[in-house]
Amino acid sequence: MVVTRFAPSPTGYLHIGGLRTALFSYLWAKKNNGKFLLRIEDTDKARNSQEAADKIIEAFEWLGLKSDEEIVFQSQRDDIYKKYIQQLLDEGKAYYCYMTKEELDKLREEQIAKKERPRYDGRYRDFKGTPPEGIEPVVRIKAPLDGVITVEDGIKGHIEFNVKDMLDDFIIARSDGSPTYNFVVAVDDATMGITDVIRGDDHLSNTPKQIVVYNALGFDVPKFYHVPMIHNEQGKKLSKRDGATDVMEYKKMGYLPEALLNFLVRLGWSHGDQEIFSFGEMIELFDPKDINKSASVYNVEKLNWLNGHYIKNTPNEKLEELLKDYDLVLTNSDKKEILLDALKERAKTLKELADLAKDILNRPANYDEKAVKKAYKSGAKDIVANFKEKLLLKNPHLPNEFHDIMQEVVDEMGIGFGKIGQPLRVALLGKLGGPGLDVVMAVIGKDEVVKRIDKALESIE
Ligand code: GLU
Over the stretch 339-388, which tens digit does the pLDDT of each residue have? Predict the structure, then answer.
């Protein structure tokens, strides 16, 4: 069975780069009828916070990416790490090292002076003597002394790490007994039964150390997939300004989870030139072997386009529910259909949709000066007044019924549509732009149209 995991450190929010590897991990597990697990790497007490962990979990709930087992917290697994450290000590695969900080610094300086790579020199590796007094030792693991560690990476292919260039007997437990990062990651992945580790390629350099731990403990080494980073359009690492922000910010901005996931799955992975994937299709088609070897480029227009697509295809009833998060509470049931049908065609985000709706439903508090100047040239007020007179004689409800009245005015006065459209728009909405006036009028209704026209005729010079 394929078991994957996502293992965020709660030093901050979940950002979209992390979410993308989580999604890849999730899809790969589901495609293989396996399991996706979530592990919170919260051992760095100085930098981690419960609040950040809660927010990460909240983001996963919003996106519907559920862990198939209870969420694992590293902070609760101290006993497990201690047990394995002891096992390695007992088997002679790890040892206490009593070097002081001063001794380590001195060694380092000497190595640098000799133009050597600074590394631990193994002086306690086979130490049999009496340990120096008053020193709390660290525990170091016996790493291979030479040769290569190879990784058959599912994305990057065959990789060789030369032991002499990059490894020494690294520390697995600090002098206070706390285990170190690469040790706990390997122990966790092994004991959680993780078969496939999909993660950012910024972790590639940790992989040989983790393999040393796997081998020492006699665990099977999982399959690794190191995913290239996401870049901005300038080819640089994605920054907060480019959109590498909290996933929950995307919710605030009005993105739908299905659009965000669809956007992310295409960042670095493709299936022909298909752009739109339902969640089911993602699961069916995803394969890490199709992940690009080079960095992918974040493009917000694409995200907006996808979000627009998903908004358009969301049933009105569901939209209405979602829009409550953007302070839009709709009431009159008839008009909702007309309103949402029209607005979902143009809004790129739920927030934009809510704002457009509020612009229609709330009377304009003022009239945009530039718009007034443009729309209210001589004769404009007469045109609007004429429209109002005709409207009062009828009882229109549907957009086309309002449209017909505008048509009558245009025909009778021999003017273009813009001549009535612009001043009427300013009267009803306070500004130019926005959805069709026929829709606007059908949504607010005849009485409200008349009220807004009266007010505009009175207050616009
Ligand atoms: N906790 C690490 C991070 O947030 C991920 C570790 C891993 O995937 O192996 O970057």
Answer: 999 999 999 999 999 999 999 999 999 999 999 999 999 899 999 999 99
**Two tokens, residue 405:** 């009245």
C-alpha 202 to ligand 1 mean position (Å): 9
Ligand 1: list residues with CB < 6 Å. Answer: 7-9, 41, 185, 199, 203
Going from the Cα of 316 to the center of ligand 1, the distance in angstroms, rounded, reads 40
Choose one of 199, 207, 210 to mutate for the ligand 1 pocket test, by most ligand atoms within 8 angstroms of C-beta.
199
Residues 259 and 326 in one domain: yes
Check whether residue 179 and residue 115 sit in a common domain: yes
pLDDT of residue 211: 98
Q: From the alpha carbon of 189, which atom of ligand 1 is closest?
A: 9
Q: For residue 370, what are the contacts with CB-CB under 8 A and spacing of at least 6? A: none
Q: State the residue range of the domain holding 425.
A: 369-459
**For ligand 1, what atom is nearest to the CA of residue 210?**
9
pTM: 0.92
**Which of 345, 361, 377 corresponds to the end of one domain?**
361
Residues 419 and 451 reside in one and the same domain:
yes
Residue 129 is assigned to a structural domain of this protein:
yes
CB-side exposure of 415: number of CA atoms within 13 Å? Answer: 20
The total number of structural domains in the chain stands at: 3
Task: Encode 410-456 in three state secondary structure.
Answer: HHHHCCCHHHHHHHHHHHHHCCCCCCCHHHHHHHHCHHHHHHHHHHH
Q: Please tell me the distance from the alpha carbon of residue 59 to that of residue 65, in angstroms, as a whole number.
A: 9
Q: Which tokens is 131 given?
A: 């340990």
Query: Which atom belonging to ligand 1 lies closest to the Cα atom of 11?
Result: 4
End-of-domain residue from the set 309, 332, 361: 361
Catalytic residue status for 240 = yes
Position 384, amino acid? V
Candidate from 16, 183, 203, 224 with most ligand 1 atoms within 8 A of CB, to mutate: 203
